[in-house]
Amino acid sequence: MLEIKHHLKSIKEALPKEVVLVAVSKTKPLAAIQEAYNAGQRVFGENKIQEMASKYDALPKDIEWHMIGHLQRNKVKYMAHFVNLIHGVDSFKTLKEIDKQAKKHDRVINCLLQARIATEDTKFGLTFADISSIISSEEITALKNICIVGLMGMATFTENQQQLKEEFSALKTFFDQLKTQHPKLNTLSMGMSGDYQLAIKNGSTMVRVGSAIFGARNYIT
Ligand SMILES: *Cc1c(COP(=O)(O)O)cnc(C)c1O
Which fold, 2-208? Predict the structure, then answer.
């Protein structure tokens, strides 16, 4: 478990100050998260709502929890009282449900809209046109308990650096363009263990790193 501390340290040292590191702890035990916490890490990402909720219950309350997985609307209620940022929002319906659940707790929940940048069709996400229309819609102004603070993207699972670079920079270009009309946008979540350095070079402000911190996961999620 000692490796966690070393991995975190070397990743953090190489990270620009303004880039937020989300330690993706999905499938990992409480002890591994506690180890990272003891090394100073406070932001953790999970992809299953119930798993995140039970970890939230068991761990220190100054941890910032990010939901990075695909959302099941009927489960939003299990995290509405504590989640700090929801990365994978890919429909207006989901935003409405987050708003409804956030309201019950008198909170405003920060959300990222997930953009489809990968060429694989297994990845979820909205087209750039969908994102523009959601973010500029009349209906969105009625949702007082959510705040869209940026975009999230997952690149194609490939070693091809040129392709990755093109996907990241396409999202960055779109993000900058959107920001001119929506100055509240400040977060661009892109980059994972295999590609976060390239993502940062192409404008990422938040990276989601799991296996490079905690080691390989035992099963595919
Ligand atoms: C699992 C996951 C990550 C982290 O993946 P690693 O390759 O282990 O760093 C990042 N983003 C999302 C959306 C994930 O589901």
Answer: TIM Barrel (3.20.20)
